[in-house]
Amino acid sequence: MSNNSGEPRYLIIPAAGLGTRMRSVNREIPKEMLPIGNKPAIQYAAEEGISAGIRNIILIISKHKEIIRDFIERQYRGADTSADAISFTFLYQNEPLGESDAIGCAKDIVGNHSAAVIYPDNVYLPAPGALKILIPVYHAYRKDVIALSHVSPDIARTISNAGRVDITPLNKSIFNIRNFIPKGDGYFVLRHKDELRACGIYISGPHMFDHIEMTRDTISKGEFTDYTVRTSILKEREMIGCLLAGTVFDIGNPKGYDVCLQYINENKIAG
After folding, report:
1. Contact between residue 7 and residue 242 where contact means Cβ atoms under 8 Å apart
2. How would you write the pLDDT of the chain (271 residues) with one tens digit per residue?
3. Residue 230 domain-assigned?
4. Is there a domain that residue 1 lies in?
5. pTM here?
6. CB-CB contact of 117 with 45 (8 Å)
7. Pseudo-torsion of CA 194, 200, 201, 203, nearest 10°?
8. Which of 38, 46, 101, 140 gives 224 a disulfide partner, CB atoms 3.0 to 4.6 angstroms apart?
């Protein structure tokens, strides 16, 4: 197995999913292009990487989501003329087999380097800032680090029932992750008032790709989600959870999208 290797040089954004839950909001555009303030969700993910100094951004899309590629290429055209130019690479997931399958598409590009991953339906506000928090933790502990977010009672019903973890505190904001709990039906019902959830924002060493390949054949039905891969990694090495100061909104469902827009409006965030 490969070890963690340096700071993350790449940001992987898996954006090839079907997004069926959001069709009631807008059937014409994918959820990654839904507006949050004055920009689409996919731009929040890209700007997380750019603001943290990552210059190689890999977007995994499908042939039905060329609108994402068109937007990114228009948005950043002509902006990358310096020695620190930002590079966007688009890869295509042939079938909607889940986020871990999509992330695995980037293996040959990332190689032996570490990579950050952001699911574009996990929007951190105030933005950007999540990766700026995670990268120093990754440097300090030399272990995979996953963003944790507070789940308040009023926001719990807007979050999918995923990301449950058992954790042990190391200090006020850093935790050892002991266990990942499989995704359930319905929304996130708090087990206790201070429960934290693991988000789709994290940094991993190149061993992530080894575990994607190791666990791929264990999926007999359903999507190849990150739960299987994260659990496999945890059996081999320790993983760190880092509590973010802001809020991670789950905009992959209508309620989560609505509460994110409400936050934007109440805090007068232009985007």
Report:
1. no
2. 444 557 899 999 999 986 677 776 777 899 999 999 999 999 999 999 999 999 999 999 999 999 999 999 999 876 554 546 899 999 999 888 899 999 999 999 999 999 999 999 999 999 889 999 999 999 999 999 999 999 988 889 999 889 999 999 999 999 999 999 998 888 898 898 889 999 999 999 999 999 999 999 888 677 788 999 999 999 999 999 999 999 999 999 999 999 999 999 998 776 5
3. yes
4. no
5. 0.93
6. no
7. 110
8. 101
Burial class (CB in 10 A: 0-12, 13-18, 19+), 74: exposed
DSSP 3-state helix, strand, coil percentages of the chain (rounded to 5)?
Answer: 35, 25, 40
What CA–CA distance (Å, rounded) separates 197 from 166?
9
Count Cβ atoms within 10 A of the Cβ of residue 260 and give its class: 0-12 exposed, 13-18 middle, 19 or more buried.
Answer: buried
CB 6, CB 113: distance < 8 Å:
yes
**Domain count for the chain:** 1
